[in-house]
Amino acid sequence: MKQQGLENFLNKRIWVIGASSGIGEACATALLKLGGKVALSSRRAERLNTLAQLGGKEQTLVLPLDVTRQGDLESAYQSILDSWGGLDLLLFVSGMYVPLRADNFDFDIAQKTIDANLLGPMRAVAAVLPEMLKNHAGHIAIVGSVAGYSGLPKALAYGPSKAGIINFCETLYYDLLPQGISVHMISPGFVATEATAKNDFEMPALITADEAAQEILKGIQAGKFDIHFPKRFSGFLKFLRILPYPLYFWIVRRFVQL
Questions:
Q1: Is this prediction's pTM over 0.90?
Q2: What is the spatial distance between Cα 27 and Cα 13, in angstroms, rounded to a whole number?
Q3: Alpha-carbon distance 24 to 180, whole Å?
Q4: Which tens digits make up the pLDDT trace of 195-227?
């Protein structure tokens, strides 16, 4: 059994969570240009309102929310149901990144990272899943990171949050494929955004947010579960996952200059 893709986005009802900047903004912009009906969510209402102007009057919904609040997500989803009667694609892009190593480990930052990056998507999925299961249709796409593949420097909280996303998506895929619901696990490498601007090291295979958005939408259209890019970097990190730990740690220390 193979999961379904979205052949095109014209008139599809799409909820982009994390739409006010970076990859989320690039995805929302592309989807609006392709004729999608896009619900825009993040904490920054002003930026969402500006983005909404790219679409037609009936093409957008502006639904500010905080992904750490279950009530915000449920209320926003109800607004989508009231306005459009359903949802074809949940695209969760929101997340936070603070570089952390063991010598500056801050549990408060770690807790906030897990709450936003792992529990946030879980809250969104919990909101939309009952209706999708009832209709045996829909797409759930969650942006994780190649940092979730294995332990990397400066990702002491971010990495575990994204590793959790990989496991969550894998289990969702297993459970939802027989139900007619497609799951898309998205693992970008380094993308030029406000978050990665915090990095003080050279980022290999760095791409733009627009390039990332094109990879994501192309993967969803094709019905892919594992959407990772850019391949020259994500493929290398996938290879590292299968190596014995002594060799893995030697390569990371030698070649991943973080």
A1: yes
A2: 14
A3: 25
A4: 665 666 666 668 899 999 999 999 999 999 999
The predicted-structure confidence for 121-177, as pLDDT tens digits, reads as follows 999 999 999 999 999 999 999 999 999 999 988 899 999 999 999 999 999 999 999
Give burial (CB, 10 Å; 0-12/13-18/19+) of 241.
exposed
Domain coordinates in residue numbering, the chain: 13-255
Burial track 5-26 (b if 16+ CB lie within 10 A, e otherwise): bbeebeebbbbbbbbbbbbbbb
Q: How many helices (H) and strands (E) does the chain have?
A: 9, 7
User: What is the homologous superfamily of the domain 13-255 according to CATH?
Assistant: NAD(P)-binding Rossmann-like Domain (3.40.50.720)
* Residue partners of 100: CB distance under 8 A and separation at least 6: 106, 109, 110, 154, 155, 156, 157, 158
